[in-house]
Amino acid sequence: MSDSPFHSAPYAARSADAPVSRDAGSSGVPSSAPEDVGARAGSAAHAVPAVGDAPSCGTSPPHESARAQVQGLAPYVDDVPEPRGTLHAAPILSPVAHGRLLGMDASDALARPGVRAIVLEADIPGDPVLATFVHDEPIFARDVVQHVGQVVGLIVADTVQAARHAARAVKLDIAPLPAVLTIEQAMAVQSFVLPPVTVARGDAPAALAQSAHRLQGRFAVGGQEHFYLEGQIALAVPREQDQWHILSSTQHPGEVQHWVAHALGIDNHRVSVECRRMGGGFGGKETQAGHMAVWAALAARKTGAPVKLRLDRDDDFMITGKRHPFAYDYDVGFDDQGRITGLALDMMANCGFSADLSGPVADRAVFHADNAYYLGDVVIRSFRCKTNVQSHTAFRGFGGPQGVIAIETILGDIARTLGKDALDVRLANLYGPRGATERCTTHYQMRVEDNILHDLLPELERLAKYRQRQQAIEVWNARQPHLKRGMAITPVKFGISFTATLFNQAGALVHVYTDGSVQVNHGGTEMGQGLHTKVAQVVADELGVPLARVLVTASATDKVPNASATAASSGTDLNGKAAQAAARTVRDNLAAFVCGLDGCGAGAVEFRGGKIVTPKAERAFADVVKAAYANRIQLWSDGFYRTPKIHYDKTTLTGRPFFYFAYGAACTEVAIDTLTGEYRVLAVDILHDVGRSINPAIDVGQIEGGFVQGAGWLTTEELVWNEQGALTTKAPSTYKIPAAGDVPPHFAVHLWPEANAEDTVFRSKAVGEPPFMLAISVWEAMRQAVAAARADGKPVQMDAPATPERVLRAVSGAW
Ligand code: MTE
Ligand code: MOS
Hints:
By secondary structure, this protein is of the alpha+beta class. It has 19 helices and 30 strands. An eight-stranded mixed sheet has the order 4-6-2-13-10-11-12-21, with helices on both faces. It has a five-stranded mixed sheet with strand order 1-30-29-28-17, with helices on both faces. A hairpin with a 4-residue loop joins strand 26 and strand 27. The radius of gyration is 27 Å and the shape is globular. Mean pLDDT is 94; it is low at 1-30 and 35-50. Dioxothiomolybdenum(VI) ion binds next to loops.
């Protein structure tokens, strides 16, 4: 074991358990990670929960459901007691990637005990095509099947098991057609779900021709299964007079409502959708929860009974879309410092058989192909390939990671080509700092006004002792014949707002009851990210009451209508502001009331510590509420918010699609075994910008979770479709998500201490997705280690995920 990366650290690696950071460290860590943490970057991640009079925002009360969740007392859809007579549905799946559906024999399935019905396209009273943006996806396949796992119909039975077994007994007669399974095949026959988009600035071909150096390359990154712990599920309950109630595990109850009404051929007002919480969504329940709900509702309509549809995990893998796999072709020009002087980049997205969210996902990849860097003369072409696989969909980062990894890979290649330190090349390419007038405009014509990376990156460099450790790694690598280490710092700059401007709106309701307790309801959904906790904190502080007095209730379309998806990391930005507005109206009503009693101006009234304070008197909040009620003062209100400043042209992809950017950077060290291709992530230091944190513990949790999920995407999570187009990695036995043991032994997360320059709620910044892209430092560290093993100076050719097989091939140069 003397050669093991776990016993040969050049530095003692334990990070001090300083109060400003979170460190999952254990002693004996092998990496060269730093011992101390910076004084400047700090967070209150360990701050105690707010007690008594203190405001809640900026402290870390636990997640509103944490206790219930660990006790098993927080119900998910499948835990809610079933209404009397509930039936269960199971999907009938196509075993063929592309083919004509000639016939079906369900006689055996229908003869089985407990089986009640089969539901097919003919049973759809409304539009047989789902109400998606592009309107290109049938609810049930009828004439043709378009991927292995496409849903042809449903079997409804008394029990889940009976339904599932019977569904498998349905015989389908399918005449196979040629299938398009890969990006290469789709590009060859120009098979697209949406037309290609080009974004250009300047004259890239001329700039490339004049560049001092030039590099061309091609690589690909894989997709990713969401692997939410709670699988897709919906329960559809018929109510009186053609009304329907749907319990759905969805990030977008409003969309589910709209889809169900569209399929049933009824008005939206007859359908109500409710979601208390999801056991994870990660983008996978942004549109694709709608399918379950529509199918369950159609089965409920046909049988007249409540119907639950809960997908088996393997079926969930086979039916639902994943992160889009991407392929890239690039041609980059650069100067002696590694500064980019021209770039032509083709990005090809594997979208699957229908458009779903592929348009906006591929757009966001284009918007993030610069990551944090000024690209100069550039042309980016984006192809949205149609293939006979699942319809790929939103996944944390929403195309952003697929854009960011392109430029980070290119910069890593440039650095190694020039024999320069990759961080120096990255620093040289950054957008101008705050206040700069040059190198500040993105390729889509938005000015970057809030670039903090000129401060943040050097701070992380110092925190992580990057320079010393790189030197030590070089020395170590020179002595080690078989193990090689690599280290990389990569930043992220992530645009916050839905790129579809209309979605940047939100509503909320704040109800104050006569005992002074408060209920808040908003259009966002809870998927574990802590949105409800943060919104409750905002409302508590606005009314000056303890957090325990504020309860957030289930997302429901009959409470706040027309709500956007909880996505694009903007849940708190949007719903926090809307809830704050609602609370402020109630507060204003109460302030006016006490002003009348005390004869003072409204500006003199303070709400804090559960009290309402005027220059003349201090009263308990609950007492004022009771008196206000008796005086017929309105104690509840709605609130509405729309994000200011944003606009953009959908056809040219130019304008200001984002309200602001969230920034961060990670320093990752890895070790690879050049004989087996195996590797370990040894140490990770993160410095991330969440603005002024509403709840530092929740934000750190999002950063840690996002990073590890990103590392999974780039290392162990490999989706394999076979030559017939069937997904063969469709269970945890073959599809490897990171587990607790994959958390790096040294994992230190620091929060950047500055407030958001834009007027967001509490001056916080969105946190859900941006840290995912910090895991690209794992990818770059691995490529650095591979380069150390090769020592031929050539760019490292490797596709993601960097499985041990791929690392081994990259080391041997046999790509
Ligand atoms: N965190 C948990 N625990 N579970 C999730 O499903 N989804 C991520 C992120 N963090 C997710 C999560 C995604 S894809 C998004 S867009 C945001 O949370 C959405 O929530 P927010 O807007 O409230 O941050
Ligand atoms: Mo997140 S991918 O925007 O749901």
